[in-house]
Amino acid sequence: MQDEKAPETGDAARMRAWLEGVGGNLFLGEGKLKSVKISKKGTKLTLVVKKKKDKLASQSTTA
């Protein structure tokens, strides 16, 4: 578990800084975050999250 006071680095830190700057918030598991892009003007934030694996395709069972 990550310490609340530990400094953030990378995409998670950029996302949090941008959201605080525009007065918003978002709760997203940082493990699911793939990348963060901020527009040149700083008005748009693009979040790319990891695709969830389909468990049903790999778990075929017969009754």
Report on the structure:
The protein is of the alpha+beta class and 63 residues long. It has a domain at 10-52. The chain contains 2 helices and 2 strands. It is elongated, with a radius of gyration of 16 Å. The chain starts with 9 loop residues before the first helix and ends in a 5-residue tail after the last helix.
Characteristics:
single chain, 63 residues, alpha+beta, two-stranded antiparallel ribbon, 27% helix, disordered N terminus
Compute the average pLDDT.
69
Instruction: Tally the helices.
Output: 2
Give the class from helix and strand content and strand pairing: alpha+beta
Strand adjacency order, main sheet: 1-2
Q: Measure the end-to-end span.
A: 40 Å
Shape descriptor reads: elongated
The helical percent reads 25-40%
**What order do the SSEs take from the amino end to the carboxyl end, as H and E?**
HEEH
Beta-strand percentage range: 15-25%
Global Rg:
16 Å
Uncertain stretches of 5 or more adjacent residues: 1-5
Instruction: Please give the largest β-sheet.
Output: 2 strands, antiparallel
Count of β-strands: 2
Spell out the blueprint of helices and strands.
Blueprint: H1 10-22, E1 33-38, E2 45-49, H2 55-58
What's this, in brief?
The protein is an alpha+beta fold. It has helices at residues 10-22, 55-58, and strands spanning 33-38, 45-49.
